[in-house]
Every structure is written in structure tokens, then in C-alpha cells.
Write a structure and sequence with these properties.
Layout (H helix, E strand, L loop, with lengths): L1 H36 L3 E11 L7 E4 L12 E3 L4 E8 L4 E5 L9 E5 L2 E12 L4 E8 H4 L7 E4 L11 E10 L5 E8 L8 E7 L2
Antiparallel strand pairs: 1-2, 1-12, 2-5, 3-4, 3-12, 4-5, 6-7, 6-9, 7-8, 8-11, 9-10, 10-11
Length: 204
Amino acid sequence: MQEKIENQESLKSKVQMLSEEKENLTKLINKTRELKEQGKYNLIQATVVRRVAEDWYGKIALNRGVQHGVKVDMAVMTVSGLIGKVESVDQFTSIVKLITKDERTNRLAITFQNNSSILGFVTGYDKEKQALRIDNIPSDKAKEIKIGDSIITSELSRKIPPGLEVAEVIDQEPDKYGLAHIIYAKPKANLYDLEDVILVEPKG
């Protein structure tokens, strides 16, 4: 009897997992179609094959490379939002540096979906808040930013397409000099559970 119950629970778990995989695949197909219909991008679908051992939370490896058209600096996103850009490419695989990778060379140009006059750069990642950090937002502009506002990529980036969803504002505070504000924003994509992604490159 106990064995029968355990088998039923195992079967339920497998059915649920397959259902979730089907739902995720459907979302990926729909997002790819949505981007393709805009006619602005070259798109490649890929799967995350592993985390990079020496940088577990900062980099991932994909099952697509030069042979599939992947290039350095291509934007990488899930159906929910941008997760990073291609850092290096081999013939059949590529390495992606995530937007949460906290280093000076990993700066993403952003703006706000409902206020494109406010421009800034992702300058780091706050592990305690689990949020991207955007420094040096003028205090008068910071007053216009609300909790829940969407952050998107801006046209200041020559390699990352503008208008891709990145994060959602969760908090802000004045900097230590009181002259500007720091904005904290939670990534739209779940960076701890990555499977299927889309690589995006502007046409032309």
C-alpha cells in the first residue's frame, strides 16, 4: 500500500514537472515570435547547460556557439527579462556574464519604461537586497521614480538592444553625500533558475 502511494506521488510530481516544462516552452516560443515580429532582431534560442564553476553566480554556459551564429556581446534574456550578455564564444558553446556580476566593466545602460528622460547605469548588485544598484540618479529625478516602476535597456548601449525589460524598482535612498539617489531594482528574470534563453542581436 505504501509503495503504491509513493508511486502515485512520484507520478504526480513527474506530470507537474512536464506541465511546467511545456508551459515554459510555450512562453519561450511566444516571446521569440513577439520579438521576431518586430523585425529588428536576429534571434537564437539556447539552453543553459551549466553554471561556470569558478563563478557560480556570475556566469553561465549555453549550448550554442559560433556554429549557431552566436557572437560576443549579444544580449541574453528569458521570457521575463534580460539576464546578461555573451562574454566568450567557442564553436558549439558560449559563456554569458550575468547582469548581477559585480564588476566595473559590467555596466548596463538603462532607462525607465514610464519616463525615458531618466537615464542611468546598473553599477553593481546588492546581495543583501538581492537587487541591482543604480547610482547617481539626480534627487529631483528620483522623486519621479516609484516602487514597481519597470527598468528597461536604453539606447545609450550600442550593443544591447533598447527596450528590453531588466528589473523592477523595489527601493531607493540618498547617497552618502545627499546629492543623488541610489535606486535598487529586482531583476525581472529569476537568475537562480535558468534553463531556456533567447540571444538577441540588433539587425544591421
